[in-house]
Amino acid sequence: MPKDIDAKESGIGAATKRREDIRFLSGTGNYTDDINVNGQAYVHFLRSDVAHGRISSLETTAAAAMPGVLRIFTGADFEGVGGLPCGWQVTDRFGEVMQEPAHPVLAQGKVRHVGDPIAAVVAETPEQARDAAEAIELEIEELPAVIDMKAALQDGAPKVHDDLTSNLCYDWGFVEENKDAVNKAFDAAAHVTTLELVNNRLIANPMEPRVAVGDFNRATGDSTLYTTSQNPHVIRLLMGAFVLGIPEHKLRVVAPDVGGGFGSKIFHYAEEAFCTFAAKALNRAVKWTSSRSEAFMSDAHGRDHVTKIELALDADNNFTALRTDTLANMGAYLSTFAPSVPTWLHGTLMAGNYKTPLIYVNVKAVFTNTVPVDAYRGAGRPEATYQLERVIDKAARELGVDPIALRRQNFITEFPYATPVAVEYDTGDYVATMDKLEEIADLAGFAARRAESEKAGKLRGLGVNCYIEACGIAPSNLVGQLGARAGLYESATVRVNATGGIVVMTGSHSHGQGHETSFPQVISSMIGIPEDMVEIEHGDTNNAPMGMGTYGSRSLAVGGSAMVRATEKIIAKAKKIAAHLMEAADADIELKDGKFSVAGTDKSVAWGDVTLAAYVPHNYPLEEIEPGLEETAFYDPANFTYPSGAYACEVEVDPDTGKVTIERFAAADDFGNIVNPMIVDGQVHGGIGQGIGQALLEGCVYDENGQLLSASFMDYAMPRADDVPFYQVDHSCQTPCTHNPLGVKGCGEAGAIGSPPAVVNAVVDALQSAGKPVTHIDMPLSPARVWAAMQG
Amino acid sequence: MTKVTMTVNGKPMTGEVEGRTLLVSFLRETLGLTGTHVGCDTSQCGACVVHVDGAAVKACTMLALEAEGAEVATIEGQAEADGTLNAIQAAFQEHHGLQCGFCTPGMVMSAAALLKDNPKPTEQEVRHYLEGNLCRCTGYHNIVKAIMAASGQDVSAIAAE
Amino acid sequence: MYEFEFARPTSVAEAVQALGAEEAQALGGGQTLIPTLKQRLAMPSVLVSLTGIAEMTGITTTGDGAVEIGGATCHADVAKGAAAAYPALAALAGQIGDPAVRNRGTIGGSLANNDPAACYPAAALASGATIVTNVREIAADDYFQGMFTTALDEGEIITSVRFPVPQAANYQKFLQPASRFAMVGVFVAKFAEGVRVAVTGASEEGVFRWSEAEAALASSFSPDAIDGLTVAPDGMIGDIHGTRAYRAHLVGVMTKRAVAAAA
Prior knowledge:
Chain B: Its EC number is 1.2.99.2. Chain B has five helices and five strands, in the order ββαβββαααα. Chain B is of the alpha+beta class. In chain B, β1 and β2 form a beta hairpin. Chain B is elongated, with a radius of gyration of 16 Å. In chain B, 65% of the residues are buried. Chain C is built from ten helices and twelve strands. In chain C, the strands form three sheets. Chain C has a five-stranded antiparallel sheet. In chain C, α3 runs antiparallel to α4.
């Protein structure tokens, strides 16, 4: 029977320890590579080692005769099979839809980036598959590659796709109708600050590389795909409907424990479709485990924007207009959600926390002979925040005003607030988060710390910035108008068992976010039963109702809301049963602490009595309600949620080497209501770690021929424990979201959005404090780059 | 194929391997001990760290035959027989030192090696020792905190719980 | 990896015999070789592990005060075992790779590979060490012959390395941010008869002695002695982590720091 619940120790707001940790800490997690199907074969992909070329000959006969080889597949085997679909169609500023090239599972005639899969060898062992792949006789007529986006847009540039008119995917203007007014405001400005910058190309690098295991049951005709995915239902729909032509009832997609995603495991990849296809063709399970080296050239990359941003101010330093011009790299093909990232996830955020009345954003998306680029933690919002917060910082330095004061002066202070870039912020309090930041970061003590650093021969800098993000992208009818080829609701089925325990089947996938712990906290508070009476199931399309998955900081705001709606239906029905048991009116029934009582009486029945009655309906109003206690809800939000915050970073720069060390980092966030503060802290820590990685360490670099130079952890610098400090994080400023039932906003991406400008602002501050006329350095701020900037 | 014998988590284990079979493959595929993970192929991520004769090593950068006759300890052998987490594992849960869990086995095994050599490490010593263990989820904050807590140090003053 | 046989001899003689096989290759701790094999960049028929040879492990002090380290001694053992006799060498060993790598990687393996960004070549060259093999003794000045190239003949095994212990010494390593190999590493060793400065990580030719700095430091062993000295960027490594000019600059900075720490 339910125990008394102490709100501080459990339920919403409690720092409940994670139940999923037990299996991860004892080595008993079940990741995709831990899954082995009896009789499985292994696939090795032969991938292009040139960035652009025409396949002039592909001879597999000898290789196919090698030991253990079951079959070698090439592009010819996939004629008649659909290409990998793109899930978002952007309409350009002239009203035309984007150019959308085909994206074959295996190359058809041409290769378009290093890593493009050409052939797939299925064999008894992974080594045999690789041996045979090396024996394939392949000749590629190498073509000139386009790597640089500006060069790709020039007349006469080699075309990535021969059947497209150019390498321009789209030329997007937002809001196009504002353009003239924005230009006029610039003409009238008292001051204009201009900044050209690069948002560096990144590789998500979740620690678990991707894995796919395709299986086929000849007896039933059913296909199963085990895959490292953030959204198994989306994969089932995209792969089933658009690639392989398998209806949902014959296709099961399972994403078991997944070792991190950060966006890179949202997308539908060729290897998933291949393993599912080959398992049926061979009547054997087929497994692919990516090596990290393979991941670098086959996982979608992130960011990669080149931007010019201009900020207009009046004589009183009020922001009057903002104008941006961005080239966004799409890579060689359109990954699943790639077109949305530089447009609707970026342009709509350009107002930031400020009441700039006029904004115009232009984005040209460009095809190049590089790996496809798509969403990576933050997806468009870090790019927006970085350029905006950098240009504000530069403006403050040009004008000789305090960067914090300039921000405060221009803050949005009244809500709801309709921005000039088509979104309406429901709540926020940017003054409060900045006040909180100044307190937790001890900004008052900075001067003394700088003096200490100077004594030690180091340059100390302070960087501050704000951010706004938009989470839980919605509603579906709006995003449909914007080009989304999917809905953006979430679902939950709440199944109450006879003895009162609950299983929630949710479309939100958990791959580090801790849903198995935090979602039960919500139901515990709603019903008043212990958290351990609730289990969460996710990741298997045979169990959970159609769901859209986990990305964009949407799980609790959208998936959690679906669960709340389903639980509300459960409670409503349970009250009817309780009313019948106590011979009272439905309206008089109250639920508290896991007990139904009749208002104004001492009559009560326990939660378990009611759930038992639902399944053993002897004394039950069968003529009014059905037996059983199971409800499903789909929740489609009315709006985005708008978390916001203020971040501060203090760095030391070694003037002899240019090496930057992060000395202090503070984050004051407003996530609305909080369900599990421990998990929220962890999400912010992780985001900051990745943001510091982007700012100081990480950079994906191609040479002019399209060879990936940062092709392993030997050359792609991942943040390590000694690259970062302890972070001071606070989320006590809470302006609850007004349009979801939990009042929550989302916290998964904030750290990665808010932190890069803080780091760069801090380094510029440090260098300027030493009299160096440095106004900007492009990320990553490696020692070599910082040193070069100091040399002038 | 060659026969290899080693003690894994206190139990004698034997299997047939090729010369090229990595220790991590022997553990995961032959013995079914899938708690040891593979996150890279350049010996940097540390998801595969196990102990061989008491020393932390990367099981993806050692051949199974090199461990002939050795005492090997993996994440599966860290908890008590009844499943009770050891002090390091418990501290990782208490301080939220893991999210997706993929790097966690290597982190726990590296932390165990550190605390054996250095029972009360400073923050900087912990951070430096984890040079060969990458985590993409936690920003390392709670991992460092958990390891210091597991060493018996008071971590309540460390920024933000 | 391609298929290969594995041998684990227990004596140098057995190892030499095993390495006589066609396409046989010696395996130290494998911390470089195994990743290389995984990329299928090498195709040995037999891998001959040297870590089972008791006579090739351990640290001793010779009669003339030199520190002699068995070729199959791992970095972690050097970091601990040489701390008293040759602290700068022990400190260098403690900075190689990461703790798990240091428990496997060996000094003989590192010197035989002669990666241009490895740490040990700087110590060996600056110390004027002697590379002892199963057939001869090679002075460090003759041993390093350019990137991944040494004086070793095929099948020749480094059985030990003998380091004269300087009066003062220090190693300063500036990390390549991703691999954490040395972007520039400078080992400075001051002997009664002069100063030796060896630089790793920086040059396309692998480890080298910076003779101008040696001359300047011989007359005044102080950081100021380096002022005004520069290394030409030509021939330095330039890559995505740093230009030639940057590496040349770092050689000066790291040398000064090593002298300051040693003095």
